[in-house]
Specification:
eight-stranded mixed β-sheet, 50% helix, 390 residues, alpha/beta, 14% strand
């Protein structure tokens, strides 16, 4: 095997490992792990819980979100509501002031979500705190399911499930995001069964209040950093699929790309600030899961997609196995034809949503490159504008 062939097949293996082999290994390992034995929930001794919402200009969602929060199945005397709305300039605060059981924290200066969360945590005096976004609706038993997961003393954080509201006919943004989160939720569940979830989605996650430490004010992925810091303290991030946040998809592929680029910039920020997580001798299984689930996707897969086509063309011309690599090049070409087709139809609402999968996959990896350069140039502001939703 030549050096070119070695590089080509190493990249193919790492891409396949990240998306296919790693989940397969997790699935096999779950066959040998006993089912989680949570202590039965004693409804007479339920912990106090604070639902903390960091919002910016969410006037369109306030009433629906508050109504959804108050309808959650949990004793009212043990569930508190805090909204922090720093920098909001619309009617968000005026609407919240109507609710006497909601603690409203507001400062005119906008410093970004993580600074608002850091400030709000000083007002949390409950045993557990649940973080949620202002434009997401929670399932009725969200709090109970999260509290149930915390009956295991080894659990320091609980990741809820993020679900995208879809219909039978969707455009590239909705179809791609919906498919991605179904796959990601399945993988998070496997991660949690074998060891620990690798991060949590900001739409819905919870921590033991005592484990919170202030996060640097320029942090882009607050949910990821808060949850992983707890895992690095030796606690597990559990997964509660029946505690879910329902959110509409991005309004279009341009809005989804904006969201993906911000997340990508934050991913490289995490790598630069938490390099210790790569030390498998210190963090063992957690490091293996972090590298397999996240780092390979952030670094190797985007690089592989950039290099595989030119490498394939070189192998067609230089390798003794011309026909073999020519067939692979045809497969490559077919994939990119599907990407181009998805691009052409990206704003069309169709029922064959899987058609958009190659395009969404390509778009997500392009966002990693854009996010990488945005991280290097420090052009990703912590005061990001959230993607418009459908």
């Amino acid at each position: 095997m030549t050096g070119l062939e070695l590089i080509f097949w190493l990249l193919v293996f790492l891409i396949a490992y990240s998306y296919l082999l790693y989940p397969a290994i997790l699935w096999l390992l779950t066959r040998f792990y006993p089912s989680s034995n949570k202590t039965p929930l004693n409804t007479d001794e339920l912990p106090t819980v604070t639902l903390l919402v960091a919002a910016y200009n969410e006037e369109a969602f306030v009433d629906e979100k508050v109504a959804n929060s108050k309808a959650l199945n949990y004793p009212a005397d043990k569930l508190k509501f805090i909204w922090v709305t720093d920098g909001s300039t619309d009617q968000t605060n005026q609407k919240l002031e109507k609710y006497t059981d909601v603690t409203l924290l507001f400062k005119p200066e906008r410093k970004g979500k993580i600074n608002a969360m850091n400030r709000a945590m000083h007002f949390v005096d409950s045993e557990l705190v649940i973080f949620s976004d202002g434009n997401t609706l929670l399932s009725d038993n969200t709090v109970l399911e999260i509290v149930k997961a915390f009956t295991d003393d080894k659990v320091g954080c609980v990741a809820g499930e993020k679900r995208i509201a879809t219909t039978t006919r969707e455009d590239a943004a909705a179809s791609g995001e919906g498919l991605y989160w179904k796959y990601e939720s399945w993988l998070k569940n496997l991660d949690a069964k074998v060891g620990s979830c690798i991060g949590a989605a900001g739409e819905l996650f919870a921590i033991r209040t005592a484990l919170f430490f202030e996060v640097p004010g320029d942090t882009l992925l607050d949910d990821f950093v808060i949850s992983l810091r707890i895992a690095m303290q030796g606690k597990r991030i559990a997964y509660a699929p029946q505690a879910y946040a329902l959110e509409k998809a991005s309004a279009n592929i341009a809005e989804e790309m904006k969201r993906k680029v911000r997340i990508a910039a934050g991913s490289f920020q995490v790598l630069s600030r938490m390099p210790a997580l790569l030390n498998i001798f210190k963090f063992g299984k957690l490091s293996w899961q972090f590298v397999s689930h996240k780092v390979l996707r952030w670094v190797v897969v985007p690089m592989g997609l950039l290099l595989l086509i030119p490498l394939n063309i070189l192998l067609v011309n230089w390798s003794a196995n011309f026909f073999f690599y020519f067939v692979i090049l045809l497969i490559h070409s077919a994939f990119y034809l599907l990407v181009f087709l998805g691009f052409l139809l990206r704003n069309k609402r169709i029922s064959a949503g899987l058609l958009f999968a190659p395009y969404y996959f390509f778009m997500a990896n392009l966002a990693m490159w854009k996010g990488f350069f945005r991280f290097l140039t420090k052009k990703q502001s912590v005061q990001w504008e959230r993607a418009r939703r459908a």
